[in-house]
Amino acid sequence: MGDGVDPGRVGEEVLSGMKFGAYAERVVVPAARALPALPGYSLEECAAYGVNFMTAWVSLTEMARLRPHDRVGITAAAGGVGTAAVQIASAYGCRVVAMAGSDEKLARVRPLGAHATVNYRVPDFPRRLREAAPGGGLDVVLEVVGGEVFRGCVASLDNFGRVVVAGYAELDYSWWNPWSWWTAWRDAPRLSVTKAAEGSIGLLATHIGYLLPDEQRLLDIWGALTAFTEEHDLRPVVGRTFAFEELPDAHRFMESRRSVGKLVVRVE
Length: 268
Description:
By secondary structure, the chain is an alpha/beta fold.
């Protein structure tokens, strides 16, 4: 324990985040960043809550300036960030269009508050997406896939729409494979200024890791988020829990794209 840390916090259940090094039996974080565990949540739920709900909340409320009745599209809606975003947008009073790559995953997100679902692996995905957002298209998209999914979402935006990129799951490159550099460049989310000007649409991006040094800003956003989730009784979706010794299995399962919700690794 460092100087100036309240000794009364010893033994307190907390959750925290770090850019690197979390796969360890012990980690060191600033005391201000060791946030009290959320009341009524298991430790697994707390682990699933932090990064996922913060990413969804910052993307939707801080970046996209979400408003009630907005038509909101969420890609990878069955993932950790996606399941959080569906719940937040629905509780905000928005029309939620959940997107995923399989009908099985879409069936899992409907009970979370999705008003419509669209499989982005079907050939006419952009048309179906526009039909799911009547009145001109989507106002907000939280996008974490990239490639054709990103382009389809941009094509489905209404005037003054905003797309927030919080990841790019389809970006796949290896240093030893120069061809993969080309495909990664091709699939990276991008939007020309000319195209954006045609509909007065905006492209934004989120990476909450850059909030970590700004502790006061982080705590202010965290307070607003936890108050909102408590008011609306929102909970993270824990898809599966792995033992620390099963880390390779956890990664293989995540890479299989079969997971729903957040995968959690438990250190005994």
